[in-house]
Request: fold
Amino acid sequence: MKRMQRTWILFLVLAAVPGRLAAEGRPEGWRRYRTPEEAGWSGERLAAVCRNANAASVFLVHDGRVVFTYGECRRRFKIHSMRKSILSALVGIAVGEKEIDLRRSLAEIGIADKTPLTEGEGRARILDLLKARSGVYLPAAAETSYMKEIRPARGSHAPGEFFYYNNWDFNALGTIYCELTGHDIFADFERRIAQPLGMQDFARIDGCYNFEDASIHPAYNFMMSARDLARFGQLFLQQGKWRGRQVVPEKWVRESTSGIPGTGERNNASDDPLRYGYLWYEIDPYRGQRLYFAAGHYGQRVVVAPAMKTVLVLQSNTYLAEGISDVDFVVDDILFNCRGGTPAPRPEFIPLEESAAFKGMKLRSRAQAKYCKAYSDGGAAFAIRREGGGLVLAGFMPNYLFRLLPLTSELFRVEDIDMYVFFSLDERGIPQQARIHKSPLAKEMLDAIAQSGMEKARERFPEWRKRIHSLEEMTDLSRELQLRGIDNLEILKLSAEAFPYSFRAQQALNSALMKKGGLAASAAAFGEIVRRLQEEGKGRTKTEWLHEILRSQADPQPIALSEMDEYAGNYGPRRIAREGSELVYFVDPGRKTRLFRIHADEFSLQGQFFRRLRFARDGSGRVVKLVMNYYRDSSEESARTEGDPATDARGAAEK
Reply:
């Protein structure tokens, strides 16, 4: 036990990340195709998919060159479970250097926990943990509620027998790595991978350990940018080699990404079964190709498509707990549906433009020291301290540290979470108080609320809506408005009106309205917002898209029986049938959903507000295809089968 305690004396030295590298054998610095079309992708379609996917950053690389970027690709987000694929790479390096033997058991290494392991659990090997098949079913740090709910009973499976996506396995692997190598995970990732690859944004400070009472084994959390994650994916695409150097053993790349069947999980877009390797997922085949990927909470992905020579990184804004909509469909759209043009025989490559970095003022050590202390902002406590020659914000989010960039003596920018610290200084220039806001604009509005009172504040909502430029800013303002007693429903309406194209804003408002007043109230409220947006000249938005669905179910239009018979039938795995005076949709024999008409040949599904069905007809007017449209504007098509499906469907319904 003392050995394990020594393991968690963490490294606190912060080092800079030097260099700029792109891909093996390439000049330093990412270079990109002049246009996505030169690589065989449609730039217009890529942009549409990314906008509707609710992605914070997207980075697409083909043959070592950047095809397309979207969002904030230099911003470090929490990557959640993609951390596991990173640890797999480090374990592979240690295995290659004979520091780790995968055949060793937990008992042999001396791995324990607050709840003692049984003799059978102690027989689990390191290899079993890498495959998520340890048979050790104990509480673990960073578990989701779903993982806890489906955790198998202790002793129900022997080591190596059964796949269960198990944070105990993953966290214990972190302990094993530190114990057997004598190194810190984050320092090793920086030294062994980030620096050789020339990652531009990662440094030791971007990793932290998350200890929880349930276990002695912490989760090992990373914050990383899309452009750095793309280098990690490119490293695996190149079989672990970077600029002539074998960073990760080639054998390990091959073995760790070759999945084992039996996970019970499937890809939503293709319905292909997922396999699990050594902390990597694999689909083989997927549209005739092999894909493997690192997966993180909120739909984050690093996808590697070897035959296509392509790497795709998707990140969501994890600070807002906002996920990518239908991530499997987004990956499918980007890799396949946005592709199809003829690549240029001699494409032109140009340097990748990098977004401008914030420039701050430099503070000497003595000036930095006066800011270093604990603060309280309402109910939130945080501290500022020095790390590696700079100032960091600690305690604002548990375990994580965020770099501070001084803009003036009274205003510091908090990197990554993209917020600001406002200081109140005394006559000597010593900070007395500090408050954290999303932006100077948010602070200005909140000060106005404090001065004018709540009623006047409500009158200024239309003015504010025109001045708010990001959903994050709106989220921060909403939190402050709630603290000042403004009705949460009014805040949600403001958010939905300010961001009519946002999935998250519309979803939050609809959920609140459904709880308070039901379907009719939600339809009426969205109708009023749509009316105001139309008066302002706004085009078709997600607000209008959702309102049409709500209205169809709140005030159903009658459908003639003869029309129902036109639609009834089999469409691949789906079936439409008439039951009495209702048209219903079947995805399997035991589940059915009523359809409501929105427009001619277009219907909503009862209780489902973010997808709809559309029927396509041929030249003779016969219904030949069923199209499922999703909230993010992607679609899934099913062709009608042969025979007399209307008769078949009526017969099935009558039975």
Remarks:
- The longest strand covers residues 215-224.
- The chain has four domains: 2-349, 367-437, 487-551, 559-654.
- The first helix runs from residue 2 to 7.
